[in-house]
Amino acid sequence: MRNLAETTARTGNFRPDIQGLRAVAIAMVVLYHTGILEIHNGVIVSFVLSGYLIGSQLLAEVSKTGRVSFGKFWARRMRRLAPGMAVVVIATIVASWVWASPLRFREYANDGLLSVFSVLNWHLAENGTDYFANNGTQTPFQHAWSLNIEEQFYLVFPILLLAVAWLSKKIFRNRALIAVMLIGVIGGSLFLSITQTASNQPLAYFGAQTRAWELAVGVLLALCTKLLSRMYPVLAVVVSWAGLATIIVTGLLITDHTPLPGYADIGTVVGAAMLIAGGCAAPTFGAEWLLKRKPFDFVANVSYGWYLWHWPLLILWPDITGHDITFSDRLRVAGFSLFLATVMFYAIEKRVRANKRLTLQPWRGITLGTGLTATAAAAMALAFVVPLNIPASTPAVVAAADNSINVVGLADVKEAAYQQDLPSNVQPGLVDAPNDATHFGCIDNTNVTAYKLTSNCIIGDKTSDRTIVVIGDSHAWQWGDAFNTLGKDLGVRVVTMAKGGCSPEVYAIQNPQLNREYSECDSWRQSAFDEMDRLHPQVIIVTSRVRQETTQAGAEQTFARLSKVNGAKLVYMTDTPHPGINIPDCLAKHTSEVKACNRSVDQAVEFPQARAIEQAAARKYGAVVFDTLPAFCTATTCPPVIGGRIVYFDDSHMTRSYSLALTSFVEPPLRVALS
Questions:
Q1: What is the torsion angle, in degrees rounded to the nearest 10, for the CA atoms of residue 579, residue 583, residue 585 and residue 591?
Q2: Model pTM score
Q3: Which domains are delineated in the chain?
Q4: With the C-alpha atoms ordered 244, 247, 248, 253, is the resulting torsion angle positive or negative?
Q5: Are the CB atoms for 114 and 147 separated by under 8 Å?
Q6: Three-state secondary structure string covering 529-597
Q7: Which pLDDT tens digit goes with each residue over 458-482?
């Protein structure tokens, strides 16, 4: 194994090709996030770059001194990262208080706090966050996941490297063990990346364990720099240009439906490694010829700030402008965030990095970074106690005085379509609305492959010898409180069978969280049907979200199967509306203009042709079709507040309060079916 001290001057000096590659990486990220160009994996390029640059610094220090100055290393990282992070985090939470939904403000503050302490990526993994979702669930701090992984790398890697280098010197008298360690990390982490992408995509996407190999590849390149610097010039030219082309082509070939990270990241990592490797030989006409141009150098200098600013601005832009983001808005977000990054670089970042007192005395840099981190954390903590920015509703408008079960009729829905002010005693309370989900029934998560009847799946009159089965997805689960009340009133037990995102009709569903076909739904559905045979229900209620994957054959297959379950009566409840906007968030910003949150029937009633297919299949096999739409919409409008109750707790699911208000609406068809 080579002596690292013998590396060429190229290793320690500024490399224009790497500077330019940093610009390419951030441009890929911003273009993709803003929707200007669908080009993926810019962050992966940054991971390889970070591994190479940090690896080069630390390996050179180990070779020269036999140790790592942790104080100097962490001081450099803090000087580079902490000022920009603190400024953007504080600015983002202030902007969120002014413009974003008040109901999301403390959630944003929590994510901001986690990002400051470099653990947001694990929170996103735990919550099963869909990185590619475009449904308003993203927070303005979500992009910090990649920074958090790098910061975890900066914390752990220097210690690990020093320990392995010391052990390698004792055993081999060279650096062989470092290479073995890196190869082991690459192999193990890549294996986890591939396997966990198939089983738990959010954990694979946000977890450091599946990203370590991308950073380790960069470190391995740093370890091999001297060898790579001897590459024949012609070969180096080919390798560097091929690397750049590989990065761009693989980025364009990946789509939002590609399982990521997994196999798809290999091409990007290989491309970045090729470009870096070819550049080690400094060929005259390599990719550096392009990447050393001034525009690349400028973008690279402000890349960190551009990454920090573009995502919060993108998420908050619709709230700031008051309309859905357009393509021209996306261009404005990209441009304005670049402007903010430029200002921050020259006003703050560059000054901090060049400050000699901070450079010569590492403790000052650590103190500065710690102080800025503490300041940002304090700002997030303050956000938990400041009053929410919710405009007061009109006191004269009063809803029902208690939580009694009301009959919702056509007149209530029609009146709600013209409602202007949010009732001061609306149920649930506006702040509580996002958490007002059903208290009854069970629902299985994405990774569950078989239905299992548990005690919490049984509601209503649990002692009854008559059974109603309700099967579907979350749009079936949302009726839990209504069915629990009706079960008790009608003297029947209700067994709930629900699985998130899983249609009871036999369709091939693409699951956005898994980025693949939802095979867990198929096995779960079959086991649920088998459980029905054992339950001998009197009534089977089928209801779920209507999907674009709907096929006549799939719908008929399900209803044909259910029609054979011990002579049970079939009831098909049509899907509830899907507003497509977060209703509590909308109401929080329009307490005196509730009509602004109305949705037209065309907007809220998804896939009418698919609905017709399912209803026809249900009728063909003897099911009673119960149309739920009159309880939610007039002929033209679906209002967000009906009868003094907020209808949805998010962008499509019914609140518990409104579910209870519909018991009298749902009771007649169930009573008929039971008789």
A1: 130
A2: 0.86
A3: 8-383 (no CATH), 410-674 (3.40.50.1110)
A4: positive
A5: no
A6: HHHHHHHCCCEEEECCCCCCCCCHHHHHHHHHHHCCCCCCEEEEECCCCCCCCCHHHHHHHCCCCHHHH
A7: 999 999 999 999 999 999 999 999 9
